[in-house]
């Protein structure tokens, strides 16, 4: 259910004959190349330089401090696509002085496992002065009760929690846990990052130890196949090397074996099968899906929907993205799009898959073909910006609650005009705070239903504001 180590794992002894699946002359199975090449320090990490600057929270954690300084959070949420280094960063942090590494997977672990880790961590801290680094993979799969079980250990610093997720923690992690953690966003690796990683793996004693050479075309193909995912790139490299070795015989006899383009192409199926079924390119495909619906390309939208579902993506995740798109990109241009999206999400919960793809497709078609407006989205963003800037303090006296004892003595409700007593049930009076009078947050664009709303809104504002 969980594994623990004292910071070092999968140590590689550097034998040149030690390759995937045991390899020629290995005498025993080897860890995958992606595991063997896991960085041992932050200086070996490829990519994510925006998180690794001197004095950054991650460097402080790796050095044995807390993520936010002496009084700051000691736990971190790592949010990013697969293969960008979430597990790697957790292992590097665990190598700090006086630390023990414990790993849990939200897919298999339960509340009992979490509590057992917390109990052991408290004992390790009090009796052995050892800090436990708890790496929790896919925390978004934990329900509220399971996440709540983490709170005592995080709040009392029994553990340094490193939680990884491919979903937005704002929607998938409970607020108390999120507020006690530092949220760090990982970016997809660039082609240059992947190329540097593959070339390092070819030469490094922990990797292929110089037993192969990569033809430029093969390197380019492997970088493209990786699509920003370090694990995928290293797994494809290992498979391609295996194909080249099988053709050349023992890699120990005649110097480095050349991995050519055809070897990389033969290895593609093996590498892609291993990762695509686990939901690779999660963020790229999701982004293309949302942008295709926003761009009104119904055919591309259905394609990306099919790719996500065929890759095993959680249909509830897809449904949530559709709901967000209905509100953000269609908005009041077609208010029924949100109703369709919510109904589709509920239907998926009721009927499950594979039939659930039908209702998801209907919702996608509705949103992709609907008129578009982000006026409501822009409106709430502008309102939030004003609130965060300190604008709009207080509430006009005539709008304040006057139902409790003593309220009328304070003038609450005095001068309030009951809308239903006025023509068309619209009263002329001030509603916003003084410093926001005349501020127009919602500005319809005239597409779809907003054409009529725009004209009506002009009339409403003139009556309410007396203009």
TrEMBL record:
Region of interest (Disordered), residue spans: 1-33
Superkingdom classification of source = Bacteria
**Biased composition range(s): Gly residues:** 14-26
- AAA+ ATPase domain mapped to chain residues: 72-189
Check the UniProt entry and state the signal peptide residues, or none.
Answer: none
Q: Which UniProt keywords apply?
A: ATP-binding, Nucleotide-binding
Task: State the Pfam families in the record.
Answer: AAA, AAA_assoc_2, MgsA_C
Kindly give the Gene3D superfamilies that the UniProt entry links to this protein.
Answer: 1.10.8.60, 1.20.272.10, DNA polymerase III clamp loader subunits, C-terminal domain, P-loop containing nucleotide triphosphate hydrolases
The family note in this entry says: Belongs to the AAA ATPase family. RarA/MGS1/WRNIP1 subfamily.
Q: What is this protein called?
A: ATPase AAA
């Amino acid at each position: 259910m969980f594994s623990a180590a004292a910071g070092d794992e999968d140590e590689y002894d550097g034998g040149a004959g030690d390759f995937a699946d045991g390899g020629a002359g290995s005498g025993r199975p080897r860890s995958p190349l992606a595991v063997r090449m896991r960085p041992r320090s932050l200086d070996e990490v490829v990519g994510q330089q925006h998180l690794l600057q001197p004095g950054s929270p991650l460097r402080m954690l790796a050095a044995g401090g807390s993520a936010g300084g002496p009084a700051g959070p000691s736990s971190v949420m790592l949010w990013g696509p697969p293969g960008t280094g979430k597990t790697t960063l957790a292992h590097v942090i665990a190598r700090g002085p006086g630390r023990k590494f414990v790993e849990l997977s939200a897919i298999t672990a339960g509340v009992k496992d979490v509590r057992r880790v917390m109990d052991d961590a408290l004992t390790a801290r009090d009796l052995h002065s050892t800090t436990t680094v708890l790496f929790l993979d896919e925390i978004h799969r934990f329900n509220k009760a399971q996440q709540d079980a983490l709170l005592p250990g995080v709040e009392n610093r029994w553990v340094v929690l490193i939680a990884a997720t491919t979903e937005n923690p704002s929607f998938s992690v409970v607020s108390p846990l999120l507020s006690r953690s530092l949220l760090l966003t990982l970016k997809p690796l660039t082609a240059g990052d992947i190329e540097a990683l593959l070339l390092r793996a070819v030469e490094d004693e922990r990797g292929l130890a110089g037993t192969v050479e990569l033809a430029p075309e093969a390197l380019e193909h492997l970088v493209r196949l990786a699509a920003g995912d370090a694990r995928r790139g290293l797994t494809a490299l290992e498979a391609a090397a295996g194909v080249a070795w099988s053709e050349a015989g023992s890699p120990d006899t005649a110097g480095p074996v050349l991995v050519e383009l055809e070897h990389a192409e033969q290895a593609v199926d093996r590498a892609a099968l291993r990762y695509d079924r686990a939901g690779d390119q999660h963020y790229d495909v999701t982004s293309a899906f949302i942008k295709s619906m926003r761009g009104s390309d119904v055919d591309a939208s259905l394609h990306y929907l099919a790719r996500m579902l065929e890759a095993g993506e959680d249909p509830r995740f897809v449904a949530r993205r559709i709901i967000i798109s209905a509100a953000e990109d269609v908005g009041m241009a077609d208010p029924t799009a949100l109703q369709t999206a919510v109904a589709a999400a509920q239907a998926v919960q009721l009927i499950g898959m594979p039939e659930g793809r039908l209702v998801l497709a209907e919702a996608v078609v509705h949103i992709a073909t609907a008129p578009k407006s982000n006026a409501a989205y822009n409106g709430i963003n502008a309102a939030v910006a004003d609130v965060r800037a300190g604008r709009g303090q207080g509430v006009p006296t005539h709008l304040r609650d006057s139902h409790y004892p003593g309220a009328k003595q304070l003038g609450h409700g005095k001068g309030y005009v009951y809308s239903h007593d006025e023509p068309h049930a619209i009263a002329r009076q001030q509603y916003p705070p003084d410093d926001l009078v005349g501020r127009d947050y919602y500005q319809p664009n005239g597409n779809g239903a907003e054409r009529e709303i725009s004209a009506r809104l002009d009339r409403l504002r003139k009556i309410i504001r007396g203009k």
